[in-house]
TrEMBL record:
PROSITE patterns in the cross-refs: HTH_LYSR
Domain (HTH lysR-type): residue spans on this chain: 1-60
First and last residue of the signal peptide: none
Keyword set, alphabetical order: DNA-binding, Transcription, Transcription regulation
Stated name of the protein: HTH-type transcriptional activator CmpR
Lineage: unclassified sequences, metagenomes, ecological metagenomes
Keyword Hydrolase tagged: no
Length: 295
């Protein structure tokens, strides 16, 4: 099977526009010509790539499989074009970073400002979720995750570890007994569907008849509750020092030992097909510098 880049560009245009008519307008092609070229591509692939509907098109399973490779080819074609046009050029384009909510909020969002100051043609897309996105399917360009990848197609670019510590507001701390223990605190935790996450499970194991005082499926809501004095949160100690939580969020660290296993790790992960793209390399370098500051 010999797939041509010109045909894959048409495939991407139809997917991005959501219809043959929209793609034809974007490409300045006649719709019959575009339909014929897509049909020829589907014949070369041996399967239908789109499901035609009255309101547009949707990718078939075969189309979903082809999409990441076509997107990568588009990225490389764009980089090649830029290099031909300019002997010296600044990387440009969109880089999507998947990150846990806390890291997205405390690290990635402020980092975007630093990147944009030096490289204004880089657009940062932050995909903040508890779930780990699939880099192989092109769901993101980079991933910050708490588990080291085992997939041979993924590259672990950098990593940082931190003790997990207990944080409360100053107002809440003022009303605690001297030398409080875990059971003396009102805990802020993850709500369903994330109530089985590690932090919830370890608190449940350490505190008899454990019941959270406050739970939310949103990290920002949890942090707001902690700032308001509702209770305590378990957070990576590096974020306390990195983001200045004591000043910015009026939180302070309690002297409570969570045990020798209370350590969190964060891994910077990239798919090997994106590893050498200049725009992705640039963002990886910025994140690695942030990791160095967190150590």
């Amino acid at each position: 099977m010999n797939l041509r880049w010109d045909d894959l560009k048409l495939f991407l245009a139809v997917h991005e526009q959501g219809s043959l008519s929209g793609a034809a307008r974007e490409l300045k092609l006649g719709q019959p010509t575009l339909s014929r070229r897509i049909a020829e591509l589907e014949e070369a692939v041996g399967e239908a790539l789109f499901v035609r509907q009255s309101q547009g098109v949707l990718l078939t399973a075969a189309g979903q499989k082809l999409l990441p490779a076509a997107q990568s080819m588009a990225e490389w074609a764009n980089e090649a074009e830029l290099r031909v046009k300019k002997q010296t050029y600044l990387p440009e384009g969109k880089v999507r970073i998947a990150a846990p909510p806390g890291i997205a909020y405390e690290v990635v969002a402020p980092l975007a400002a630093k990147i944009r100051q030096q490289y204004p043609k880089i657009q940062i897309g932050v995909l903040s979720a508890v779930e780990v996105l699939n880099l192989g399917r092109g769901e993101a360009d980079l991933s910050l995750r708490s588990e080291k990848p085992t997939d041979s197609d993924l590259v672990c670019v950098d990593e940082v570890s931190s003790p997990m510590r207990v944080f409360v507001s100053k107002m809440y701390a003022a009303n605690l007994p001297p030398h409080p223990g875990l059971a003396d605190l009102d805990w802020i935790c993850w709500a369903a569907p994330y109530d089985e996450l590690r932090s919830n499970q370890e608190l449940s194991a350490a505190i008899p008849n454990f019941k959270p005082a406050f739970a939310s499926d949103d990290y920002i809501v949890q942090l707001a509750a902690c700032k308001a004095g509702v209770g305590a949160m378990v957070l990576p100690q590096v974020l306390h020092h990195y983001a200045g939580l004591n000043e910015l969020h009026k939180l302070q660290e309690l002297d409570i030992d969570l045990g020798p296993n209370a350590t969190g790790s964060l891994y910077l992960v990239c798919h090997k097909r994106h590893h050498r793209l200049p725009k992705v390399q640039l963002v990886m370098d910025f994140i690695s510098k942030e990791f160095a500051g967190l150590r």
